[in-house]
Design brief:
With 381 residues, the chain is of the alpha/beta class. The strands form 2 sheets. It has a 7-stranded mixed sheet, sandwiched between helices. Helix 2 (51-63) packs parallel to helix 9 (232-243), helix 3 packs parallel to helix 4 (102-112) and helix 3 (75-86) packs across helix 8. The termini are far apart. The radius of gyration is 21 Å and the shape is globular. It has 14 helices and 12 strands. The protein has 2 domains: 8-243, Type I PLP-dependent aspartate aminotransferase-like (Major domain) (Aspartate Aminotransferase, domain 2, 3-Layer(aba) Sandwich); 245-379, Aspartate Aminotransferase, domain 1 (Alpha-Beta Complex), CATH 3.90.1150.
Length: 381
C-alpha cells in the first residue's frame, strides 16, 4: 500500500500536502469495503473526499469545538447545503434580514421548492417565539450581522427553537472562532465563509459547516451528491491561512475597537455600529457571547447622503475600496451598492442600512496608519 499522503515515510510534513488525485488505487477489496462502510477514513473519488480537504476539516472542527466539519466550495454553498439537507417542502424557516444578501436569492429557490420563509429584523430577535410555527424546522441567524453588526442572543434563540424542535444555524463569519463559538452557545450548526478571515488573503473561496458527527454524515451525503467538494489547492491555502489566523484576528479586533472609538462622536459620522462600543444596543449580549474582543468588522454612516460616502471612500489612500472582508488588507464598501445588490432596493434599507452606510473590514496594517487614513478622508468629505 502507498504511504499515507499526510505522513509519508512515517514523519509528518510541516505543511499540508496538496493531493490533486481524482481517484485512488485500492490495496485490496477488504480495504475498499472498510472505506465504503465508513470503518476507516480512506479515499475513493475526489467528490467523496480528499486528504487535503479532510485535514483542514479536522482543523476547523477543532476551532469550533465540533465533532466534525464539512468544507465546500464557498460560503453560500455551505448555506445552500444546509438548506437542502435539513429543509423539505412544507417546512418553515425563520431567517433574519440582517444576513448576507445572497441568502435572499437562495430563499427564492427554496420557496419554489415549497419551503415557507419568514424574514424578521434582528432587532426583534427577542420576540422570535411569536414567529415560530409547529412546522418551523430552522432558524438561520448571523451574529454580529452583516453589515450592521447587530447582535443576537444565540442561547435565547435556541430556547425558543426547542419549543418547536427547530434547528438553529449560526453564521459565524463576522465573529470568527477566535471571538465566538456558536455551538457552545446553543447553535446546532455553525457556518463560515472561509473565503474571509479564515483564509485571510483574498485568494480562495471556501465554506465551512461544523457540528455533530450525525450532521456531518447528512451534509457529506449532500456534498457528495451535488459535487461541492473543495479543490485540494484551495484547501491547502486555507490550511496555510489558519496558521496565522489567531494573530490576524487579534490584530484586526484591536484595530476595529480603536477605529470605532475614534469614529464614535465624529461630526461627520452620524451613526456607528460596533459591538465593542458600550453604546451599541447589543454590547451586553456581545460581552457574554464573545471573547478576545469583538471582531474586525464595523459599519458607519458618512455625512448626509451617498455622495458624501463616495467622496470619503475615494479619498482613502491606505484602505482599499473592495468587497469581501477578513483580509490582511483593510477593505471598505457601500453595502447598498455592492453586497446588497442581491436584494430589491426596498429590502436593502428595511432593517437599517442607508445609502450612505459604509462597511469597514480592518486588516493587519498598523492601527495608527488606519486612523490617519480615516481622519484625512473624513476631512475631505
Amino acid at each position: 500500500m502507498s504511504p499515507d499522503p499526510l505522513t509519508p515515510y512515517g514523519n509528518r510534513p510541516m505543511v499540508t500536502p496538496i493531493v490533486n488525485a481524482v481517484n485512488y488505487e485500492y490495496a485490496s477489496f477488504e480495504v475498499l469495503r472498510q472505506i465504503t462502510d465508513g470503518e476507516i477514513e480512506g479515499y475513493t473519488y475526489h467528490r467523496d473526499d480528499n486528504p487535503t480537504v479532510r485535514a483542514v476539516e479536522h482543523k476547523m472542527a477543532a476551532l469550533e469545538n465540533a465533532e466534525d466539519c464539512v468544507i465546500c466550495t464557498s460560503g453560500m454553498a455551505a448555506c445552500t447545503m444546509v438548506y437542502l439537507t435539513f429543509l423539505h417542502a412544507g417546512d418553515h424557516m425563520v431567517i433574519f434580514h440582517d444576513t448576507y444578501g445572497a441568502n435572499y436569492k437562495v430563499s427564492l429557490i427554496l420557496e419554489r421548492l415549497g419551503v415557507n420563509i419568514t424574514w424578521i429584523d434582528a432587532d426583534r430577535a427577542g420576540d422570535i417565539e411569536a414567529e415560530l410555527r409547529p412546522n418551523t424546522r430552522m432558524i438561520f441567524l448571523e451574529t454580529p450581522s452583516n453589515p450592521l453588526c447587530k447582535v443576537i442572543d444565540i442561547g435565547a434563540v435556541r430556547s425558543a427553537a426547542d419549543k418547536v424542535g427547530a434547528m438553529v444555524v449560526a453564521d459565524n463569519t463576522f465573529a470568527t472562532p477566535y471571538h465566538q463559538n456558536p455551538l457552545a452557545l446553543g447553535a446546532h450548526l455553525v457556518i463560515h465563509s472561509a473565503t474571509k478571515a479564515l483564509g485571510g488573503h483574498n485568494d480562495i473561496m471556501a465554506g465551512v459547516i461544523a457540528g455533530s458527527k450525525q450532521h456531518y454524515n447528512e451534509l457529506w451525503f449532500t456534498r457528495q451528491a451535488i459535487g461541492t467538494t473543495l479543490d485540494a489547492q484551495s484547501a491547502f491555502l486555507l490550511a496555510r491561512g489558519l496558521k496565522t489566523f489567531d494573530i490576524r484576528a487579534q490584530t484586526m479586533s484591536a484595530s476595529a475597537q480603536a477605529v470605532a472609538e475614534y469614529l464614535e462622536g465624529h461630526p461627520k459620522v452620524p451613526r456607528i455600529f460596533y459591538p465593542g462600543l458600550m453604546s451599541h444596543p447589543g454590547h451586553g449580549v456581545a460581552v457574554r457571547q464573545m471573547h478576545h474582543g469583538f471582531g474586525g468588522m464595523l459599519a458607519f454612516d458618512v455625512g448626509d447622503n451617498q455622495e458624501d460616502a463616495k467622496r470619503f471612500i475615494l479619498n482613502l489612500k491606505l484602505i482599499y475600496h473592495a468587497v469581501s472582508l477578513g483580509a490582511t488588507e483593510s477593505l471598505i464598501c457601500i453595502p447598498y451598492l455592492t453586497t446588497m445588490l442581491y436584494l430589491p432596493p426596498e429590502r436593502r434599507i428595511c432593517f437599517g442600512v442607508r445609502e450612505n452606510t459604509v462597511r469597514l473590514s480592518l486588516g493587519i496594517e498598523p492601527t495608527g496608519r488606519i486612523l490617519e487614513d480615516l481622519d484625512q478622508a473624513l476631512a475631505c468629505t
